[in-house]
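Input record, target 12 of the design panel.
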């Protein structure tokens, strides 16, 4: 009886691990879309609203859902007194603190890092051009993420269950 309970727990743990991995594949396109929407709002704030960058980042953070909300709010706080960091430094610090909570990969991080190098250091049309480039790159990553989701989401679920069953077979 105890062996059966242990076997069920092992299979259940494997299945849950597979479902967690599948959820990451499902969350990544959604988080990339949220990042795209946030940068589109940032472009609007800079281009048409003449909003200072820290205030624009704060507004975007208030409009964005978790997990990206904390990222934008921290970047805005880092640019305001008493920190007074540059946009690049503020975004780098916010990425270090909050990037891992989103289902985003290193490619999206690199796109945001490259964009942060130009934010606040050039005129509005130049910043708008760099944001448009970042948006184009993020849209390509979103397409790739949706393809990965289609390929690997079901596989992850099945693999978790099968791995749990394999462990049970090997142990007993």
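The sequence produced for target 12 reads:
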């Amino acid at each position: 009886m105890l062996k059966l309970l242990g076997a069920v727990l092992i299979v259940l743990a494997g299945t849950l691990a597979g479902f967690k991995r599948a959820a990451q594949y499902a969350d990544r396109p959604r988080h990339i879309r949220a990042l795209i929407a946030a940068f589109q709002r940032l472009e609007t704030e800079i281009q048409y609203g003449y909003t200072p960058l820290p205030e624009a980042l704060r507004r975007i953070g208030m409009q964005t859902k978790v997990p990206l909300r904390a990222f934008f709010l921290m970047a805005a706080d880092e640019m305001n007194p008493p920190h007074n960091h540059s946009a690049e430094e503020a975004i780098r610090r916010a990425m270090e603190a909050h990037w891992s909570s989103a289902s985003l990969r290193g490619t999206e991080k690199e796109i945001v890092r490259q964009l942060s190098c130009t934010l606040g250091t050039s005129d509005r049309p130049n910043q708008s051009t760099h944001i448009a480039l970042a948006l184009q790159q993020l849209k390509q990553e979103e397409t790739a993420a949706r393809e990965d989701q289609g390929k690997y989401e079901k596989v992850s679920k099945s693999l978790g269950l099968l791995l749990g069953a394999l462990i049970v077979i090997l142990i007993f």
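The two ends are 13 Å apart (CA to CA).
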